[in-house]
Amino acid sequence: MAKAADVYFAVDPWKIIEKGFNPAYSRVSESVFSLANENMGVRGYFDEGGCQDSLRGFYVNGVYDVEHIGRSYKGIIDKSHFMIPTAEWLGTCITVDGEKLELQQSNFSDFSRTLDMRAGTLERSFIWHTASGKDLKITFLRFLNMVNRERAYQRITLKACNFAGKVGFSSAVSFDIAHEGRGKCFWQDVKCEASKNSVMLKGRTLQSEQEVFAGAIVDVSATVDVKIAGKTAVVSCTLNLVQGQEIRADKRAVILFDGTEGELLWQNGLKAMDALGNETIEDALRIQREYWDAYWRTSDIQIDAAEEADEDAVTAEQQGIRFCSFQLAQTYSGGSMRHNIGAKGLTGEAYNGHAFWDTEACCLPFYLFTNPAAAKDLLLFRYNTLQNAIERAKMLDCKGACYPIATLNGDEACPLWQHASLQLQPSTAVAYGIWHYVHLTKDQEFLRQYGAEILLQIARFMASRVELGGKNGKYGYFGVMGPDEFHMMVNNNAYTNYMGMRTLAYAAEVLEQMRCEFSDQYAKLVQKTALDEDEIKDWMHIARNMYIPQDPEGLIEQHDGYFDLPHTDINAIPVNEFPLYEHWAYDRIYRSDMIKQPDVLMFLYLYNSSFTHQEKLINYDFYQPRTIHESSLSPAIHSILAAELDKMDEAIRFFGYATRLDLDNYNRNTREGLHITSIALAWVNIVYGFAGLRSDGEMLRFAPRLPDRWKRLQFSVIYQGRVILISMEPGKTSFRIESGEAVEVMIYNQLYTLDKNETMIDRQ
Amino acid sequence: MAKAADVYFAVDPWKIIEKGFNPAYSRVSESVFSLANENMGVRGYFDEGGCQDSLRGFYVNGVYDVEHIGRSYKGIIDKSHFMIPTAEWLGTCITVDGEKLELQQSNFSDFSRTLDMRAGTLERSFIWHTASGKDLKITFLRFLNMVNRERAYQRITLKACNFAGKVGFSSAVSFDIAHEGRGKCFWQDVKCEASKNSVMLKGRTLQSEQEVFAGAIVDVSATVDVKIAGKTAVVSCTLNLVQGQEIRADKRAVILFDGTEGELLWQNGLKAMDALGNETIEDALRIQREYWDAYWRTSDIQIDAAEEADEDAVTAEQQGIRFCSFQLAQTYSGGSMRHNIGAKGLTGEAYNGHAFWDTEACCLPFYLFTNPAAAKDLLLFRYNTLQNAIERAKMLDCKGACYPIATLNGDEACPLWQHASLQLQPSTAVAYGIWHYVHLTKDQEFLRQYGAEILLQIARFMASRVELGGKNGKYGYFGVMGPDEFHMMVNNNAYTNYMGMRTLAYAAEVLEQMRCEFSDQYAKLVQKTALDEDEIKDWMHIARNMYIPQDPEGLIEQHDGYFDLPHTDINAIPVNEFPLYEHWAYDRIYRSDMIKQPDVLMFLYLYNSSFTHQEKLINYDFYQPRTIHESSLSPAIHSILAAELDKMDEAIRFFGYATRLDLDNYNRNTREGLHITSIALAWVNIVYGFAGLRSDGEMLRFAPRLPDRWKRLQFSVIYQGRVILISMEPGKTSFRIESGEAVEVMIYNQLYTLDKNETMIDRQ
Predict the structure, then answer these.
(1) B180 lies in some domain
(2) CA nearest B549: which of B503, B495, B479?
(3) Which of A737, B456, B577, B748 is deepest in the core (most CB within 10 A)?
(4) Shortest CB distance from B584 goes to which of A74, A582, A584?
């Protein structure tokens, strides 16, 4: 845990504030000041440019291009896809007396940049002191409409402080944008048109041949001139400023990616432009505020500092957890089954926009308890890409469906075969996600209509990939990489075996139940999938005979031979050797008992109720000192288990940077984008860790353990139509149903019925 | 062993003969009809072209270019190098009445192509029936001078059978040649000049910036015209043919790659052209014949059929083993320490011309017993690339020298990290090669001057790569791939541990001996390598405590957990699934006890005297049925051990295609080039297998076991300046020193002194 905060932003419970501009921190700020509305995302870059270290990333969810890798061996992908930047609609140029505004060249003061998490806006302002001695105050406001998600807004406010006169102004929409990592523009056949103060463009990607419409209306109190050059349309004018008065340039944009193309897309774009024209920015700002108000009412986590605690530090945690919640809700809030959650969301090119198994394994609980409809949509994404997973399984000489380790469109996009071919956890995580969703929501209709088919195909895959082991005579997975990516091609990885066992058993159970209770739907499914009922028996047989290597004390061996590995003292590794992937020879990380991230502990977390306290304790004590946390997903799982085991010091230590991973740039790579899926675990860390929520048993369970430095931790969860408000204080916790029916839950292992009256439980 | 002969060429004891031309077999023929003289190699393609399925491969040993792969992780190479085709000097165009000779279009008869292994020439002839009704007999002869190795020759003989008249003729030398796999010409800055009937060219490679001179003198009885166009120079003329008389066009070429460049290379080229001009083709042909006569006198293996045997089949074996010997001697015969032996020699682009650990592990015995000076040169190649191996070890976070798995110039060129980073056998094989060479030749001077330094650096590497194991408390190698490439990243691979142990112990022993007996040389070496004497103690400590997993019966576990792997019945794999790398998903081959090639059996073969009969028997019986022989290097090792264990049926079955692997295209990929390193094992298979030669004990040992279908097997070996002639007949074997001193050897475990008189030993 050789990681330290790099504190830069001002602490505020509801805002992220940058006072003064530090070019060296430019890309980190761009990432932190990202906005998104699930449909699109934009880094917090300067509208007017002029910043040397900058990634002008504007991304539309689902827009990607394809690269051919060349065929090597069977089962190794020969093409990959990656998110590309899309129509850049914020480009602005401001000139005074022939001098162009570029902050790294210009003289300026009073710089501030503020992300307002209640308003859902990003604002930046400063006073530009021109070479000609004029002071011009400029404010940039931007936001992405959370309701009409193809709409985006920019408001530029200019105020001549000490002069009256002309300011040159232009505003562009452009498809002439390069993917930074690949140094290339992936847009072709760009059509541009203009009409008065509007511009309309349409572009097509090179290989994937996706089409996107981008248009903007620029409202200024001046005569505008529109120029089209190549892939760019520019609206320009001269603004006449009166001293002391504010003048505005408003830009309302539409970025439409609706699956249509050609003339139809163009017409859809024009219609969207018409609709946009009927709504003012003020209207949009009000609706945006209402949206976020509603969000915070149900989804906020409130933290208050204890008397003796450092109040600023706790406010920083408060700010941090809200930032996590805000970014997660921006990245994904449901409503589309075409999208998933990229490891970096829509905030950068790193990881190519790909979603990993993080979605089901890490992010899902956040949605299950704050936005169950979004959780369902995430699972429907997997249903809609089931065919891709079936094709992938075939490539691997297997049956059924193998879900990709990295994807935007459902196809495997990870060019590293060792991950793409050996990691079975995306498939078992989808099965777990279905189980978890159905278990919590009782949405049997979803299960029968979608879930059962996915489960069937995943079970087929897991049954075709399993081997009957050598000496132990049991089933197991050979040649796999478990969640711990520091052990590549191992046999009987306990996580994979255990998750495979649960997957097979659950699939069999679901299908058996369907056969008995919904025979028509079952018959249709059997026909569609050519299911042989012996398959189900086979799954049950495998599940019953799966090898889980556990000693009499309960210690589980991570994989065959793990206990025979040389020991690495992880505390002896010098700080400057992190991250290990950059500083160690690639093969060196695979040669000892050092673990990248929880593996055994991961399934003890996922199926928490299935293991005894003693099992959790012995495994935690064994694996914790061997885990180096090179994945940002790692510490939260450790923190949750430490809290459960009443190791509160460790729980708090591992929680350490969870809420402020990106705000304080702990991993020194926030410049590449936000760790969106890790951000989800900050929420999980608090709710599962300190409130002790467990959601895998018969009913919800709580075991609140408030850290000493907090006076209060309050949040609510949505559970089967109810909103349950939990308010933890030192020594006691109150539970109350805010809306909906009474419900039975376990608190500290005792049964309680929660209702609209407060149930107050003492700390145990 | 689901492989079958694809018989195409005529059987002859000294020649490879193709009667009639089969376009479908074109590339296989091109490979089989390859010529080389170590310095250069040429596939048997048609001088005049016109063959659709053809690879016009002419290669100069050591000429390569470089491609950048892009950096991924530390220790994974970011650039690779590969052999490229060099100046094509055989290009010929023949026209009659405006019709161009192209065999796949033209009408022809009496086609034959013959490789003469005593003459060292390739001859092709046919009668061309032109559309205008003329019959023209054409003979192409080519050879590469085995003595003056920059010289190459082509003789074209034309005979007008039924007409008199004009024939258009032109002959080219060109650098305008593409690497087929990469679809690109790697030659630039080509300079061309002409003088009378001579052309001179010089080209430079794109990235590696190597320069090659190519020139030719074309002797024809006609006035010639020389044209230079781009990277090509063409000599043309009109030949006046008299009916029934032969007319010749002789081309003598120089291809010079001597490490110089620019004007110096040009001058060297011109000098070489002058020298060439002083020697006729007849002279060169005579010298070539003398060279090969001398070669066969000492290196031939003669096989005679038993009375009851199929004589043709045995003649085919005789032809096969001579073909192997001929190709191996062509590819490498010593005299240059810049060259090694590519897996495909100089016969194709597959494997990029790279040499693997095959050189020391497979090829060296052939040279040790037929051409010890060449064996020394092969080891000096490793000495000359020691610095590259030191750099490579650093890349891998190790000390000392790590030899590459694939290379032309000493740098690691294998872009597959799993091979380049995990296979330690190139390094241990170099150490083994030094030991084997010194053990047999007693060349202590080589050992002190070169070998000791290599051994020191390899021992350093092996000591820095070793780990102190987990439970067993011994040393071992973790995260390695042994010779069996079907188990990728395993721990305590017995081969790697055993070879590491022997390497460390031998290095320590050599250095200790130097310290005591040659203190000056030792002191210099210590200074040069900054050797700390504690290092030597450390190596001995590791060697003494190396983990070799062997049970009380002597069975050795291939690697940790091997015995716990699922079993694959290799006989149940359908024939059409071979080769597995093409038909199975890549990761699937790693999930069972199926073995690609000998691993435990490999070190039982290499250090044969160190293991008991019982150890060999139990391990052979265990591993043999699990080995699928997907490497062409595999069956010979099995055959040798089977013969030793008196399993003669199996020994003969595994010997099966050894001598005719390429002649009968057993692996169905001879079209890509010859399996040069496998060819070496055909010789080893006979000498170690059926003569039972063992060279790792105190003295040479023999245990002749003649296969029933042979009446006689006769060959000689060179041993410490002696030539020992061994002649095996049913029931008895005679030994005789042909030249040199008497020597003691073991035959069937009894001591004999061989001298110039015949020693006759009965079969035991």
Answers:
(1) yes
(2) B495
(3) B456
(4) A74
